[in-house]
Structure formats: structure tokens, C-alpha cells
Amino acid sequence: QVPPSCLFFLKQLDRIIIHQQVELLEAILGTETSSKYEIKNHLGQRVYFAIEENDCFDRNLCSPIRSFTIRIADNMGREVIRVIRPLRCNSCWFPCFLQKLEVQSPPGTTAGYVVQNWDPFLPKFTIQNESKEDVLKIIGPYATCGCFEDVDFEVKALSEMTTIGKISKYWSGFVNNVFTNTANFGIQVPVDLDVRMKAVMIGACFLIDLMFFENSLDGL
Fold it and tell me: Coiled-coil segments, which residues (predicted)?
């Protein structure tokens, strides 16, 4: 299957940076507003920008398990990736209703899925292709608080024996986190990974952020 041309910029990347843009009203009053992000290459150049769509009820009452649609556009304003997350449970005690989201690219065409796996101790996810076939695993640490350090979720082969990359929550400083509540994530994957799977990794990054860092001191 020919990869979507709209993901051309991802083809040459092995590192992707995701940076949240903080609204002034949210920073001052703590009011939840729609999240906006810049997606950059390792040189800090913006490749895409993204905005989360949901309603005020979802953001203020259902966060961090809220449903959302994140629309990701290129620098010309053309939507290239769509991340769709339904409202689901966020507890390991309900293994039949764990987290799942769909990544589309181009919008309307499934690129793959991120599926949470049940585990009593570790955060675990499976990356699936458009046919819901398992491709990769993501395994996080026992503790995700970070304690003022970066937090790494390892990207592994299906055997879980080989690490091929990681999704990292970067510690950006106590004052920055407390008063601007900003988020910085990095994705490292092989440069020759299918661009559709790179797009799904971006979706996985958004899911990890909301599940583990939305309401924490070191969170988004």
C-alpha cells in the first residue's frame, strides 16, 4: 500500500517533538481551553500544528478520560492527520473497556490504532495497523511522576525483547510546569518506520499525555 503523500515530512524524521501552546487565559485562571500543539523536527522547525476539538463539558468534567478529536494540519493549513479518541475507562480494574484511539491519514482513511493492554503494574499499549494487526508495543515505567526527570515509554518489537525507540515526556522546569502548565514530548523511532506508524505514534503520544500527565505537576 502506497503511504499517503500528506505524510511526506514524517518520512525523513526519526525524532519528532510535540510542544503544547498554552493559552493566556488558561495560564492565568486555570480555565481549560482547547489544547493546541506544534509538531516539530529535531531542529525545532514546525512541520505540523494540531488542535484538540471537544466541548467544555468533556474538558472540565471528563478530563483526562475525555473523548476528543485532534486535527493535525501542515503549514499550509491542510488537515493531514486526525486522531479520534472515544470516551472510555481509565482504570486497570476494567480490562474490557480500556483506552483505544484511531489515527486517520488522510482524514477518513484509517492509518492505525493505539490500544491499551491490561497490566496491573506497567502502562502498556499496542500499535496496530489499519487492519488491526499488531505492529509494535509501547511499555511505560512503573512510576510516571518523573520526579523532575524525563519519563520514557519504550517502543518495542512485539516480542518486547527489543527496544527500537521511545516516547519521552521532557522535564522542562518547575516554574514552567507550575505556572504555564506546558507539555513537551519527544518521539524517537527508526527513520525507515512506515510513515503511517509514525502518525500513529503521534496519536499514542497524545493518549499517554492525557492518561498520565494531564493533572500532574509534571503534566500537560
Answer: none
